[in-house]
Amino acid sequence: MGERHTSMIERVLHRIEEHVEDWRRRDAARKTELASHREELWAEAAERQKLLAEAVADRETPPASLEEITRQHRVVFVLHREDLTGTLEAFAAEKDRLVNVVPGKGDYGSGKGIEGIRGSWLVFETPEQEEQPHQR
Fold first, then answer.
1. Does a structural domain hold residue 19?
2. Going by C-beta distance under 8 Å and a sequence separation of 6 or more, which residues neighbour residue 55?
3. How far is it, in rounded angstroms, from Cα 123 to Cα 112?
C-alpha cells in the first residue's frame, strides 16, 4: 500500500510540474507578444509625432520645434495603456482640469530606436476640488 500511495503522489506532482511548465511556456509567449506590440506602439507614436511636426511645419515658416507646436495648438500626444482611454475621456467629459505633470523616470524608448521618449503622470482636479483649499 505504501508503494501505491507513493506512486499516486508522484503522479500528482508530475501533473503539477506539467501545469507549471505549460504556464511558463504560455507566460513566455505572452511576454514576447507584449514586447512586440510595445515596440510597434512606440514606432507608431514616433511616426505620429513626426507627422504632426511635419504637418504643422508645412503651414508655418520657419519650421517650429515640437514644443513650440504643442504650445501654440494647446495639444500634446500622450502615450498610455489602452485601458486608460476611458479614464482620460471621463476626465474630459467631467471637465476635470490638468493641474500638474510629474515626469516619470527613465527613457522609455531607449534601445528601441526612439530615444528621448518619456512618460509623465498627468494630475487632474475635478471642478469640486478646485473650489476647495488644497491640502498637500
1. no
2. none
3. 28
Q: Is residue 66 part of a domain?
A: no
- Has residue 67 been placed in a domain? no
124 phi and psi angles, rounded to 5 deg: -115, 155
Give me the tens of pLDDT residue by residue for the chain, a chain 136 residues long.
567 777 888 888 889 999 999 999 999 999 998 888 888 888 888 888 888 887 776 665 665 677 787 777 777 777 777 777 788 888 888 888 888 877 777 666 555 655 566 677 778 788 777 666 555 4
Q: Is the pTM of this model over 0.70?
A: no
Q: Is residue 120 within 8 Å of residue 102, measured between CB atoms?
A: yes
Range of the domain at 91: 78-136
Other C-beta atoms closer than 10 Å to the C-beta of 96 total 17
Q: Cβ(47)–Cβ(85) under 8 Å? A: no
Element at 92 (helix H, strand E): helix 85-93
